[in-house]
């Protein structure tokens, strides 16, 4: 499927060093080019969510998007570049959602109300199609992913730890970090359950249980 294309996912074909750089000039900002990039990324997301990670072939994705391999090579270099573009966008959307959390909603009101607001906001970001596709890529390529993907994960954990501090004023750094880890692990698990189950999964009660656990933890360890 992908053995005939130069790509770092050639590791699946016994060539871990294969890679092709995108041919698109780094300064290219034309609106049409951006629309094309967006169309390819969107179709890749749909392909991953519809069919899972095989990994998908470039030809299959381009056929679905009505584009050619040359277009993908121009904008992304190879399949690896395309998949990492999906990961980049997924984490950018997730971090943007966290950064845009209103300060008042995180710091004012009861601990339970603040925690519920944060958990619901993060869940909405985690369960978006792009974030789900990014998670599927990271899980499926964990032995191959590069430093950039690991940096995304580190940035996400730092942001969640910061949120933990805001939720519980007076929490020590270790306690805030544990809250961030718990939110990440729980919601990531719920997303995986959603991706693997054949029908939509209602996680409302699971998220409410998470809110109750975090609230109790903050009330126990907060200042």
Can you characterise this structure?
With about 220 residues, the protein is mostly helical. It folds into two domains: about 70 residues, no CATH class; about 140 residues, Tetracycline Repressor, domain 2 (Orthogonal Bundle). The protein is built from ten helices and no strands. Helix 1 packs across helix 2 and helix 9 packs antiparallel against helix 10. It is elongated. The N and C termini lie far apart (about 55 Å).
How large a portion of the residues is in β-strands, by DSSP E? under 5%
Shape: elongated
Oligomer: single chain
Distance from N terminus to C terminus (CA atoms, Å) equals 57 Å
Q: Give me the CATH architecture of the largest domain, please.
A: Orthogonal Bundle
What is the average per-residue confidence, as pLDDT, rounded to a whole number? Answer: 78
Give the biggest sheet.
Answer: none
Number of strands: 0
Q: What share of the residues lie within helices?
A: 55-70%
Structural class: mainly alpha
SS element count, helices: 10
Look at the structure and give the CATH class of the largest domain: Mainly Alpha
Q: Can you write the helix and strand succession as a string?
A: HHHHHHHHHH
Unreliable segments of 5+ consecutive residues: 1-19
The number of domains is 2
As a whole number of angstroms, the C-alpha radius of gyration is: 20 Å
Query: Within the CATH hierarchy, at the fold level, what is the topology of the largest domain?
Result: Tetracycline Repressor, domain 2
